[in-house]
Structures are given as structure tokens and as C-alpha cells.
């Protein structure tokens, strides 16, 4: 470790430049430039297209504060992000634990494949297949009525739970993968040491395994929370009229209302809020880990 | 404190018999080494006693109470792992406190006990450190303090010194022995290091292929091994194979070797003799008939390894290479290629029935 550091500092950054350059060039072209354009747009009264008049304004940002609709929706989206993240922890962590600590060899590979499989299918297809499952007279409704002796009506389509189900389904693999990686790195002898000291399996889980896998939980939560807060596809398709969230409003500005400056401004407010939340959460989570 | 009885314990993993009808009685307060090559079943046996794994058959009792189906957390044992297994997210003091804390002891009691345990392993001032800030030897001590602070009935050690360098290992052997005497705890120690087993334990059990080959005090196993495996695994031995004569064996070339220790083997049966290298005398002149060293063989020095306080001679004789260790007394050293006479006492010759 010390040797590596010494070598790194002696050679400086120069030899590393050819290795770093492609990635940073790409990032500049593909992310930094378009984002800068968006920042620019967010301060404009209108798009400079087809010779329209435009000037600089703070109005787009002011709109967020003057109309309570936006902050209400942002709040709903943050709550959605929190709920989806929690469900992903509840569903994903046990699966990651079993993958990392219980299964071995072939069965582990098979279960792993099932976790990764959703990544290989188109996101839109995934969401529409949920629509088939959740609607009245759909797969879930039919199947439950075939098994249960009494008649029930399952129509989850166009509801808040449908949005949660769709988002959890899309994002739970991130939680499984990040938690799997940290759980995998925990030496089994730590678990055995805990139990040899008289701790039950639950005590070992609570006092040894969860604290040691905290980095994976945090990484997974960040990977899920941030995109879910801004999500629009799942809320729109599965939520219907109940699926109006901050993300769908932003989408509307770009694709329906063509008010790009407002959409951009709302996006950057979301970015700022998410960054503030992550910054506030970081020290607390770090201490827990 | 309590003794541990293992009776007729067997454990298989698939077709592999890891433990095959093993019975050992671990006396209360004793220091016991389980010695064997890798794959001999010594760690499997320790894990059965700890309760990480349950035997297919047989009985395990701690302090007279049957525990073979009791899970590890209810057995009240202390265990030290090969890689120490300290909780990296906790300070040294929290590591040691873990066992008392999960038991729900009051905070004040925990603090006192933890300090006492850390003092015992001479780390009283390092309670606030994290495990990664400690040296290997210090981590070892923390692991030991953590294992004994709960006042377990048995202390189990799984190759605890394997990861330490030689000098530190010797220090820790002495330290471990001191602590074990001080608290008088029944200790079972798994090792593949014969020197460690010899210097530290009151009794040694040698395992091979899931079976106990021999069991007893170190001196007894060293002086009277009951199998070629025990003779060569614990210490060095020269092995002669031939037919039993009633008072020794006759080698294929007609030479007889007299043996007055070991088992009795009926005349005519296949048998071996084991002789420790340091029991053989080496000389250049013709052997004077000496009843105390009645066994003699002629040979030729093929190699000498000088190790300071002693020298090891490799002597070729009739297709066999014998090992002789001679203390460095300042006497003339023998050259390679020199014809020599080896002689030793029948008392130093252990007769072993062929397996």
C-alpha cells in the first residue's frame, strides 16, 4: 500500500493522462455540454427557436416557489423515492444475504441470473407487462380468483401501489447487487465469532452483518432514491391520473407544453434538493456504518 | 470450567468421512492439542465441539451435559479463530465487550470485565483502538481476551498462531500457556505444527483421515509412537521394516534390530522399528561390542547439514537413508563419503506392528 502510494506520487499525474482523457472528453461532450445548455435554458424566457424573442429571467425558478403545486409534487416524489427505496431494502437485502452467504456454486449462479434478467429486457416492456398483471381481469386478478373460493376484485392499475410495484421491480436489482458485494466481503468467521460469543443469529445480523454491509445499503439507496424521485415513465403508465409526480411534470414541460426553460429550472431544483438530502444524510449514514 | 467428552463421533460430507468414530476425553483444566495434517479432521472435530456443525452420530458432552444438538450460542464456549475474526467496525473494547453485551450484562460490569480481560492479555491501554490499527500479535491477544471474558466452559483455538511470524509465535505460545494456567480453563488447540503441540500441551491427539491415531502426553507419543505415522508426524524418525522376531525385527538383508519398547508383535508377522535421529550414535572406528548400544549398522555419510548447536548426518545404508542428529560438542566432524558405524540402544527402538 505504502509502496504504491510512493510510486503514484513520484510519477505524478502525467502518465495517467492518456488513460483519463477519453473518459473525461466523453463526459465533457456527452454530459457537461448538454447540461450547461440546460442551465442556460433555465434562465431564459423562451426557447431561441424559430426567431422567437427571448431574454434572461429568474422567473422559471420563481415559479417553483410561487406555485405550491410544484413543491407539493416534489414532496410526493421524495416520499415515493423513500418508499421505493425502503421496499427495495426489505426485498433486496434478504435476497442478497441468501445469495452471498447461503447459496453456493450453480444455484447461486441461477438465482443471480434471475436477479439480473430484468436488466436485459426493455424498460417500457417491463412496465407494460406489469399493466397486464395489475389491471382488473388481468393476470393477478384471474389467478387469485382461480385459487380463492370467494370472489375478489383486484384492480391495482392506475393507483399509487401500482407505481410502487413497478418502480420497486425496476430498481430492486441495484439493491441486491450492491448489498451482495458488501455481504460477500464479510468473512464468515465473523458470523461464527459472534455466535461463539453467545449472540443469536438475529443479534449477529443486527450488530455485525448489517453495520458491515452499510456501505452496500447506502450505495444501493443512493442508486435507487435519486432516479426514483425524478421518475416519470412508471408513474405515467402505471399510475394514470394518480401518477402525477414531480418527474412527470418535468417531462410534460419538455414533451407536451414545450416550456423547456421551466422544465430545466424544475430539474435543477430537483438536483439541488437531492444533493442537499444526500449531503445531510451522509454523516449520519457514515456513523451508522 | 468443565471437561469435554467426545464419544464415537462421526461426521461425513457426502462420501468423505471427515470424522470416523472419534472418541477423546478432554480433562477439565487441561491443555489439549489436536495435531494432524490438513484434511485429517482436526478442524472438523473442533467445529463439532464448538457447535458450528453437528455430528451424524456419537455424543459430545461439555461438563457432563450432552450438547451434540445444542447450537453454538448456547454452548458457552470461547473460540479463537485462525484469522482472529475481530469485528472491524468495533473498537478493541467493544470487540471484547460483545459477548457480555449480547447477554445483556449491565454496562458497569461490562466495563470492569473488559478492562480485566485486556489487562490479562497486556493490552490494557489499547481499548479505544480499531482492530486495523493493531499488529498481528495484538489482534491475537484481543481475540483471546474476547473469547475468555465471557468465562466460557471451554476455550477452543483453531490454529491461532498460524498467521504469526516465528519469533512472535514463540512469544505467544508462552503467553497463551500463561493465561491458560492463570484461568485454568479447559483448552483445545488445533494445530498442524508439531513443535507447537509438543511445547504447549499436556496431551496430544494425533488425527489422520478422520481417526485418532494416538492420544496421550507428548512425551509418551514421542517416546512410544504406536504407528509409523505417529512416529514420523510427531518428530523425526528412522523407520526400519521387516519381520518380527519376538525381540525385534529381521530386515530383508538378514540384519536384526533389537527393540525393547513398543507393542509386542508375534514372531513372523510384519513389523517396523522406529528410532529417533538423536538417539543414534555415529562413529568412524569399528564398533566395540557394547550391550547398551546393541544395534549396529554400517553405512556411509552422504550429506551433513550444520545447524549451529547440532549437525544432521544423512547416512546411506543398503538403499535407505538414515538421519542422525549429533550435538555439537567440538568433536571432529565427519566428512561426506566417510564410512561410519551407527549404534543405538534397544531401549530407544520402538517396535510397531505393521498397519
CATH class of chain A: Mainly Alpha
Q: Could you name the ranges of chain A where pLDDT drops below 50 across 5 or more consecutive residues?
A: 1-8
Look at the helices and sheets of chain B and give the structural class: alpha+beta
Order of strands, main sheet of chain B, comes to 6-7-8-3-9-10
Low-confidence stretches of chain B: none
Q: Given the C-alpha coordinates, what overall shape of chain B results? A: elongated
Gist?
By secondary structure, chain A is mostly helical. Helix content of chain A is 76%, strand content 0%. Chain A has one domain (62-288): MetI-like fold, CATH 1.10.3720.
Descriptive notes:
The complex is a heterodimer of chains A (289) and B (355). Chain A has helices at residues 2-11, 17-42, 59-66, 68-102, 105-116, 123-134, 139-147, 160-184, 188-196, 201-212, 214-229, 233-239, 246-255, 260-288. Chain A has 289 residues and is mostly helical. In chain A, helix 3 packs across helix 4 and helix 9 packs antiparallel against helix 10 (201-212). The model of chain A is unreliable at 1-8 (pLDDT under 50). The two termini of chain B are 39 Å apart. In chain B, 24% of the residues lie in helices and 35% in strands. The A-B interface holds A 187, 189-190, 192-200, 203, 207-208, 211-212, 289 and B 50, 52, 71-74, 76-79, 81-83, 85-89, 98-99, 102-103, 146-147, 150, 156.
